[in-house]
Amino acid sequence: MQDIQDRVNFVELDATSPDWPVSDSNYDIVLMSYISGSVPESVILPLYKNAFKAD
Fold first, then answer.
1. pLDDT by residue for the chain (55 residues), tens digit each?
2. Where in the sequence is the domain holding 11, given as residue range(s)?
């Protein structure tokens, strides 16, 4: 179990800002739980576009 903990990092960001100060190469997955009902509607699409990356 310790091996997994050493490889996982959490970065807390502002959900109301779709511009993240994190390079795409610095993350493999984005967890956004209950986000759609918590941010302004105008932010949702840019936020999801930023979270999705195609290889």
1. 568 888 888 878 787 776 777 776 777 777 777 777 888 888 888 888 877 765 5
2. 2-51
Q: In this structure, are residues 13 and 20 in contact, taking their beta carbons and an 8 Å threshold?
A: yes
Contact between 53 and 25 (Cβ < 8 Å): no
Q: How far apart are CA 47 and CA 16, in angstroms?
A: 8
Q: How far apart are CA 14 and CA 38, in angstroms?
A: 12
| Structural domains in the chain (count) | 1
Q: Provide the whole-model pTM.
A: 0.58
By CB atoms closer than 10 A (0-12, 13-18, 19+), residue 47 is buried
